[in-house]
Amino acid sequence: MYVPDETDDALRDLVRTRKDIGTALRKVKQQINAFVLRQGLSYPGKTKWSKAHFNWLTALKMPHPAQQIALTEYLDAMENHEGRVKRLETAIVASCQSWRLLPVVEALQALRGVSLISAVTLVAELGDLTRFDKPGQLMAYLGLVPSEHSSGGTVKRGPITKTGNTHARKTLIESAQAYRLPARKSTAIRKRQEGLPEAVHDIAWNAQLRLCHRYRRLIARGKNHNVVVTAIARELAGFIWAVARAVPIAV
Fold first, then answer.
1. Which of 79, 68, 92, 82 shows the shortest CA–CA distance to 16?
2. Are 147 and 159 in contact (CB under 8 A)?
3. What pLDDT was estimated at residue 146?
4. What is the pLDDT of residue 132?
5. pLDDT tens digits, one per residue of 185-228
6. Which residues partner with 20 through β-bridges?
């Protein structure tokens, strides 16, 4: 049985706080989008929330002074949330440097779609992944396995159970989105893999080969995008389990 220690609890609180502020940031961005569209305005550029987009927003002249105040407050709230997210991410990086589970955090980043924040979130929420004897146990713990309804000799499979840790499950589903593109080792991934055991490299590459192919195959069969991403997230949990077992950690 896994019992989190003080550092485990502290990091879990920190990543959850960062998640909450990130959610607030996304919400205020949606509010800004809706507000600007109500004024009949549309950003002419390609990439929203870039420096150019922010400059465009700050240069807008609203038809009424009250609307100008409203836009200014929205933009100030966005900047405030962005600053808090950055401070929290800096605190997360600093706080996990002496963490006994740091080797697992570093190894998980070898996987496509698993950034530093995603890796810390998964490990902080799930703890020592070696406590799961089989990958299927981790999948079930995350609520990513199909539910079953039995009646007599008939067994019907339904949606995923969604039991277990919600924060870890959502993070894993976000990470699974990265496998919609063809398998490749980007410069960022190669950099994250530096110094990691060869076994971890192999697991990460095998994950790409399998999951990228599986994503395309399921989409080609007409499966719903959300169903496909959930299936990829379930299998990704298995590769995460394998990576964690390939990295020794201090007891």
1. 92
2. yes
3. 75
4. 93
5. 999 999 999 999 999 999 999 999 999 999 999 999 999 999 99
6. none
- In degrees and rounded to multiples of 5, residue 112 shows phi and psi of -65, 135
Per the CB < 8 A criterion, the answer to whether 13 and 97 are in contact is: no
Name, in order, each residue with C-beta under 8 angstroms of 109's C-beta and a sequence gap of 6 or more.
Answer: 115, 116, 119, 192, 193
Cβ count near 237 (within 10 Å): 29
pLDDT tens for each residue of 150-170: 555 555 566 677 777 899 999
Separation in Å, CA 143 to CA 12, 126, 161, 237? 19, 13, 5, 11
Which residues does 180 contact at the CB level (< 8 Å), separation at least 6?
Answer: 212, 215
Residue 157 gets which letter from DSSP?
E
Annotate 39-103 with DSSP letters as a single string: TT----SSSTTSHHHHHHHHH---SSHHHHHHHHHHHHHHHHHHHHHHHHHHHHHHHTTT-TTHH
Residue ranges with strand state E in the chain: 146-151, 154-160
Q: Radius of gyration over alpha carbons of the chain, in Å?
A: 21
Structure tokens at 24: 């607030």
What do you get for the CA distance between the two ends of the chain, in Å? 14
Dihedral of CA atoms 29, 123, 110, 226 in degrees, nearest 10, equals: -50
Dig out the tokens for 5 from the structure: 């220690």
Q: How far apart are CA 38 and CA 34, in angstroms?
A: 6
Q: Which amino acid is at 76?
A: D
Tell me how far apart the alpha carbons of residues 164 and 122 are, in angstroms, rounded to a whole number.
Answer: 13
- Residue 147 to residue 8: CA distance in whole angstroms: 30
**Tokens 């550029």 correspond to what residue?**
45
230: tokens are 């959930």
